[in-house]
Design goal:
The complex is a heterodimer of chains A (271) and B (355). By secondary structure, chain A is an alpha/beta fold. Helix content of chain A is 30%, strand content 27%. The longest helix of chain A has 16 residues. Classes of the chains: A alpha/beta (271), B mainly alpha (355).
Chain lengths: 271, 355
């Protein structure tokens, strides 16, 4: 990876392509985990990545975040090939929330959130540290846990701490792998509302989700994966259609409009 | 903004310097007492007086015993200095290892790095090697210690961390190989080097002079500085490999660098003082319990506490048995062994088995 640094990031206009992945293919043994996937993420949008278990959502996220090199295809980030970015420059431009957030030593909640500011050390933006940390702590409702050691927290509290760490970085691109998985209803809504707010401010947000209704309610666009292929990509109303979903999830599904908002509600057809 | 964590931060901030002050004072006192204790008893104020006179301050009395000043500077001070250096090296190497293995049970003695380093030092003793002049023993100890560290690192890690069982079992294997090599050296060596090897396996600071201190000081200093420079990155490593990468840390580079640091510190400590185990386990652990796991402050605290422990252990080794000297490794193992036991049980209870 190239080690030359290109300075601090500048905000890009809403609608600019932040990520552009073309022809992403990844094989493991004889299986194609990803097959010619093309995807663009724009500044100012929430793009949800949906699909059944094993569809390749997390794998695609790994490739986009730079953890994994695809066998074929290229990922462009901010107009440059992802491979050309130094780790530090990348860390100042995109934050990643993983599903598994281990902590090998008993740091406090506050210390963990502070780690999200690490990319900004010795830069002018270091001055924002305290503000960013308290803002994230407040936004994720963990203020009362600040001095607690993370291993002593519940699963949901730990997930919120990890989320607070990720948003404390204040990067222009958020990648969230199932951010709502361990959370109760109220905190699920809070996390996705926050994602929406970030998008409204011009950041790009890519979320892997399982809950179709959360995706319907909070996404600008939805990308639907099945067996490593991109089946559909577009606005929620275009993607969340009964015929598409029934086929992708291999179970009959109906989509009914919400009585007041008109947004689609996805329901499996039972019995 | 005014969340409770800010006050906690302050409180923590005050506790850390206080611990440094306490440890520093205790260390200075134990150095003075230790240097004054022995066949020639010299009171602490005279020890201090001797030091002050050397640096040109005519305050406090000089040692009143006949030849007291010479005894201090020729024998006692280099020995105490060595105890301090070895304590710093062992404690900080233990701390760094625990960070890169992601496992609080990692320790140079337990994992076998000490015995790895001992092989190199033993080779230079038995075959009387002088390839690198007076540095030969230290260099060989570093090289074989590095080899042992790399073996443990490659063999015991899975998914960016090391499970307790794997770590301890790998340690048994490495210790067995190191032990066999040392036994082989004992077999080929002459009576004199045999005795040297046996005593040095038990760990001892006997006969340390300024030469050794001058060799070990820069090595420990380099290791310590490198550890300080990486302190914050070691914190991020606790989030797991991928998260650390996403925050801009080149994890592999950091790991390799820290393995070199560990090998330097352990090699320097083991080369002359022999195998002294458990210091690297007990000290970082106690410090972490007092001040939390943030590495920058842990490095300072562990260095101070390691130096203090080794100074006291050396003092005990010289005075517990009259007219004889107990190998210092026996003492540290006597304290560290049960501590390791307790730590093992607690770790198992916490993770609900050997996850």
């Amino acid at each position: 990876m190239a080690a030359r640094h290109i300075g601090l990031p500048t905000r890009v206009a809403t609608g600019t392509v932040v990520y552009s992945a073309t022809g992403i293919t990844l094989e493991r043994g004889r299986r194609r985990l990803l097959d010619e996937v093309n995807l663009e993420v724009h500044a100012g949008e929430v793009l949800s990545l949906l699909g059944p278990n094993g569809a390749g959502k997390s794998t695609l996220l790994r490739i986009l975040s730079g953890d994994l090199d695809p066998d074929a295809g290229t990922v462009m980030f901010g107009g440059r090939n992802l491979k050309e970015w130094s780790l530090l420059d990348l860390s100042r431009r995109r934050s990643v929330l993983l599903q598994d957030n281990q902590l090998l030593f008993p740091f406090t909640v506050h210390q963990v959130v502070e780690m999200g500011r690490a990319p900004w050390r010795r830069t002018t933006l270091e001055d924002e540290d305290n503000e960013a940390i308290s803002e994230s702590i407040e936004a994720t409702d963990i203020g009362h846990l600040g001095s607690r050691r993370v291993p002593s927290l519940s699963g949901g509290e730990r997930a919120r701490t990890a989320f607070a760490r990720v948003i404390a970085g204040r990067t222009g691109m958020l990648m969230l792998d199932e951010p709502t998985a361990a959370l109760d209803l109220g905190h699920q809504e809070a996390v996705l509302t926050l994602a929406r707010e970030r998008a409204a401010e011009g950041d790009a947000v890519l979320i892997v989700l399982h809950d179709l209704n959360l995706a319907a309610a909070y996404s600008d666009r939805i990308a639907l994966l099945r067996e490593g292929r991109l089946v559909a990509c577009g606005e929620p109303t275009d993607v969340l259609k009964p015929e598409i979903l029934s086929d992708v999830y291999r179970t009959p599904v109906e989509v009914i409009p919400h009585p007041t908002t008109g947004r689609g509600i996805v329901l499996p057809i039972r019995g | 903004m005014n969340s409770p964590d800010r006050t906690v931060h302050k409180r923590h901030g005050r506790r850390v310097p206080l611990l440094y002050v306490v440890l520093t004072v205790l260390l200075l006192l134990s150095v003075l007492v230790s240097a004054g204790t022995g066949q020639l008893a010299i009171p602490p104020q005279e020890v201090l007086g001797s030091i002050l006179h050397r640096i040109g301050i005519d305050w406090l009395p000089l040692p009143s015993v006949n030849a007291g000043d010479q005894a201090l500077w020729a024998i006692r001070f280099p020995r105490v200095a060595m105890a301090v250096l070895v304590g710093v090296g062992l404690a900080v190497s233990g701390l760094v290892m625990q960070a890169i293995f992601g496992n609080p049970l990692a320790e140079p003695g337990v994992i076998g790095i000490s015995s790895g380093a001992a092989v190199g030092a033993g080779i230079s003793i038995v075959f009387g090697l002088t390839v690198f002049g007076e540095w030969t023993t230290a260099v060989l100890a570093f090289l074989t210690g590095l080899a042992a560290t790399l073996v443990v690192y490659v063999m015991s890690r899975a998914d960016g961390r090391t499970e307790v069982v794997t770590l301890v079992l790998t340690g048994i294997a490495v210790n067995a190989i190191g032990g066999a090599a040392i036994a082989g050296l004992t077999f080929v060596g002459d009576t004199q080097s045999r005795e040297a090897i046996v005593f040095w396996q038990l760990g001892s600071l006997k006969g340390m002079g300024w030469t050794q201190v001058m060799i070990v000081t820069p090595i420990i200093a380099i290791g310590l500085i490198a550890a300080y420079l990486s302190g914050r990155k070691l914190d991020l490593l606790a989030l797991g490999e991928r998260n650390a990468r996403h925050l801009g840390v080149n994890v592999e580079l950091l790991r390799i660098g820290m393995i070199l640091v560990v090998s330097l510190l352990v090699g320097a400590a083991v080369a002359f003082a022999g195998i002294i185990s458990f210091v690297g386990l007990v000290i970082p652990h106690l410090m972490r319990m007092i001040m939390g796991p943030a590495h920058l402050s842990l490095i300072t605290a562990s260095a101070l506490a390691g130096a203090l422990l080794m100074t006291l252990a050396d003092l005990a080794a010289r005075t517990i048995v009259p007219m004889a000297e107990l190998p210092i490794g026996i003492l540290t193992a006597l304290v560290g062994g049960p501590f390791f036991f307790w730590l093992l049980r607690r770790t198992r209870k916490r993770s609900g088995g050997w996850g």
